[in-house]
Structures are given as structure tokens and as C-alpha cells.
Design goal:
By secondary structure, the chain is an all-alpha fold. It has three helices and no strands. The chain has a single domain, classed as Helix Hairpins (Orthogonal Bundle), CATH 1.10.287.
Length: 117
Amino acid sequence: MFERKHEELAPVSVFIRRMAASIVMAGILVLVALFIGITGYHWLAGFDWVDSLLEASMILGGMGPVNPLTTTGAKMFASGFALFSGLVFIAVMGIILAPITHRMLHKFHIAEEDMQR
């Protein structure tokens, strides 16, 4: 997906396509996680669909729960979903920052080679 160490820096148009692809992949990951949260809160906590969306969005966004959970199953799901949401956040940041970090490090490497010549 990325150019190798000894290759030239990719043009800006390629970088923009990589960023767009990363944002799309991150968005898909967030939508899948949101779907998991919505269905879990709907079936395990007994919330209606809108409340399930609100609860899953708030947990996934790191804001915390909104509605009280009454059953043990709902509390177990909420605990697991909160941990899962933290991992999704880390994954999304890695996916989005990968092209930026690669380009920056590749540019530093090229600059270092130019200085040695």
C-alpha cells in the first residue's frame, strides 16, 4: 500500500487517495461497532432503537452511559462494549494516522539521504 524506503515520495494525489481510503475504512469500523452496540443494547437492555443508538453512540464516543441498566446481562454487555469501544478508538486512530505518519517518516528518510550525497 505504501512506497518502500528507497522509492520516491508518492505524489500528493496518491497521499490524498490513501487518506480517503483510511477515512472510509475507519468509518466502516465505527459503523460496525455502532451496529454491535445498537443491537446489544436493544436486545439485552430492552431499549428501543433510538435509545439504543443514543447509548451506543455515547459509549463509543467516550461520553459514558445515559440510561440506567437494570439487568445483569445488560450490565455485562455494557462493560464489554465499553472495553471494545476503547479498542475501536485506538484502531481508528491508527488507521487514520498511518498514511500521515508514513509520509512524514518517508520524507525524513529522503531528506537524510539527500544530506549524505
